[in-house]
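Thread amino acids onto this structure.
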């Protein structure tokens, strides 16, 4: 029986299916561009939208709204530099996808 985790060309286990990992490794410039551009913006916006759910309101009741707006450059810079500097693009893709999915799921659950 084969494990659900496949090994990539460096011998490490990958959390993505074999075909997705091959596609990412075959097109590193495109994947890095997609992760650093639209992926970083989407992760920052999703985190910004989810922050009022887990951030306390503060004494005036506006900290949960104002801080995500003020922290937007930092929320964008972290996934951007991770995507640009990560040596393992498969892992970077999995991490950024997980961050986006968790934050979007939190917003959708709160809206339901």
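Threaded sequence (112 positions):
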């Amino acid at each position: 029986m084969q494990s659900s985790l496949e090994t990539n060309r460096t011998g490490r286990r990958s959390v993505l299916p074999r075909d997705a990992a091959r596609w990412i490794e075959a097109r590193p410039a495109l994947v890095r561009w997609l992760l650093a551009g639209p992926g970083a913006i989407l992760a920052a916006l999703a985190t910004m939208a989810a922050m009022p759910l887990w951030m306390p309101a503060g004494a005036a009741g506006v900290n949960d709204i104002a801080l995500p707006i003020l922290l937007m450059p930092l929320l964008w810079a972290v996934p951007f530099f991770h995507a640009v500097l990560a040596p393992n693009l498969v892992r970077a893709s999995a991490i950024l996808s997980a961050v986006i999915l968790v934050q979007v799921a939190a917003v959708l659950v709160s809206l339901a």
